[in-house]
Design brief:
The protein is of the alpha+beta class. It is built from three helices and two strands. Strands 1-2 form a two-stranded antiparallel ribbon.
Length: 77
Amino acid sequence: GEAAAALEDVRGAAVKAITEQVIDLRPTITVQGQASLPSLLWAYRLYGDAQRQAELVRRNRIAHPSFMPAEFEAEAP
């Protein structure tokens, strides 16, 4: 009953933590631009896929997706 539910919660948390760590192990690059540009533009330039803008924002802990810093980290294309 309760013990099994607690173990399932712990298992779920462990899987989530390990998954997040594995994501961080992908090869990364440091992108250097001339100015602050929107993440949407950077995602398209780097990957040809504007939908990956959320990944750039999350990886770099950006407060607003319209203002990526001139230098940031990205998964290697």
